[in-house]
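yo

u said u wanted the structure for the complex thing, so here. seqs first:
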Amino acid sequence: MRSKSIDNIIALTNDLRWQIGDDFHDQLAEGIYADASYIAQNSVISGDDKKHFRLDSKIDKIVTSKTWGFPIMFLILGVILWLTIEGANYPSSMLANILLDNLHPWFKDLASSIGMPWWLDGFLIDGVYLAIAWVIAVMLPPMAIFFPLFTLLEDFGYLPRVAFNLDYLFKKSGAHGKQALTMSMGFGCNAAGVVATRIIDSPRERLIAIITNNFSLCNGRWPTQILIATIFIGAVVPDSLSGIASLSAVLGIAVLGIFFMFLVSWGLSRTMLKGEVSTFNLELPPYRPPRFWKTIYTSLIDRTLIVLWRAIIFAAPAGAVIWLISNIFIGNESIASWTINSLDGFGFLLGLNGVILLAYIVAIPANEIVIPTILMLTVLVTGITGGEGAGVMFELDSASETSNILRAGGWTLLTAINVMLFSLLHNPCSTTIYTIYKETKSVKWTVVASILPIIMGFVITFLVAQVWRILS
Amino acid sequence: MENNITSTCDTCSHFNAEGLKKLGVNIDNFDFVIALAGNPNTGKSTVFNSLTGLRQHTGNWPGKTVTRAEGAFEYDSKKYKLVDLPGTYSLLSTSQDEEVARNFILFGKPDVTVIIVDASRLERNLNLVLQILEITDKAVLCLNLMDEAKRNNIKIDERSLARDLGIPVVATSARFNEGIPDLIQTISEVASGKIICKPHRLINVPENILKSVNKLSTEILKQFPKIPNSRWIAFRLLEGDSRIINALKAGEIV
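structre next:
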């Protein structure tokens, strides 16, 4: 009975549709606008003074201008990065001092005083605890600076202007202009950036945005970039310039990421994801002075702590895995050193080494733990003393000590540059991969999004290594 | 959860400040469901936060909320579940965020839909308001960002707006917690049926379309006497909206 009555309705609908013609949608929209304008005229009393609008449009004229739009964008990003790099140093070393230098020995003493067996003590304290402590010490300070600054910018209303500036490039590359917004979110966290692509209407353009989000350097990768740039890039120029040199190197990698994002978007929209660029309206909202303290507070609670918590959850098992593979022996060799030896040849081709590749495998759950893993494994392979021993994650107090270890592990300027490139171009972390699957519900696109960047990483680092070796 | 209402409404006899409890995410056993809808970047999440005491991330860019967020508050010993919908300019298109909003208003059948508009851009925002009023009878217009409107020297006659739209209008500046008590009071009165809305229905529709819509809507009412928004369903059917046809078949709308 019900289905029959619905058939009646649908039949009637089809009849009526013939009568009203195909401009129904437009006529309806016009009707709505006419009503809206009538009601608004009745109740809006005055709006003649446009002083505020004028100020907004004056700012917009500068920040979205052809000449100044891009320099201002890079300047703002540069200042935020600089504040993050410089400002994070002190709290980072303070936290490292408390968590690694004081609490860690204290836990060790406690464990031996209650007679904990060596393997449990190693697994829990040297593995799990140290991984967590390292992530907190290294990640919390930069995040606590970067996120609030970024949120202030967001509250002020700058992000839509970035989208406006980049729109032309997105259109050229066959992608949606709103991808600028999701890309910006990716600079904080790729998983968040992938979820944010829901604002893009067209499925084709949304997929492009999802696949290329990984080219935004995420929060877990900034510390790697910053540390390696400080140690190796900063060291090749005179001291007075080292800050600027390392800042430019990090900024360069970030911009390179944006370039790859456009390149891959362009490639996808011409091969696997062909189609027209859809039009859309982008509203440039009024500038709103951010409510400073409220913003700082909410960004700490909402972003910093949530991201930190995630990192801790992933770092703990990773720390345990590192400890295990370094302490379980097959014959005379630990699993770790066996894997490193077999990866070394391939690593050399890429201008990297086996340690770095293994570290990237171990760190799939969280990019944050790449550097400590590399250090720990390097110590293991070279047999130098300086760290806490086999399978123990640690951070050395000064960048120069870290540098000594890495150089002892055979690192050169080429290794450093390629690590920075590889950190930009490799598979997304497991959370992002899972998020991509949840958003696309497609194994195929999840695989593409995971494999594509790592293939690019192999190709780029390989080329750089070959050219470098020919030239030097 | 703390109760820091700073406006004069706090002391007004009309508003029962003691009766307000922000419940955060405790959404069990609610009495009413309230939807927050509106154009992008009109401060929906800010209103949501000040009603629930939650700290949903807010940001000054359109499209920040892509999923719906839920929270709750209690007022005069009634519990309200609050759903923050993604911002949309219209309900006529089919992007994912707009569908989340439309489906909730249509299928979630909220007890009250609070439509949040930017007071400085009233005319453009009314486009969505009028569409929502075709779907639901119980709505409150929240005229937000009044501080900005004031700075831009825009004044709005709230009473004539309320008369034209047929729903209560509350002026707020959610960022500064102004007008929120009044909003809560109004929501509670619409939810309990103390205020009966007579929402504006589209007038400026060409004669032939209106005739077809009325014909179809009568037919729908004949088959489904309890349907509250037959006119809007008729609009959607004529547009060829397959989601609505399927929903009708599955009995989701009635």
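Chain A has a mean pLDDT of 82. Chain A touches chain B through 70 residues (CB under 8 Å).
cya
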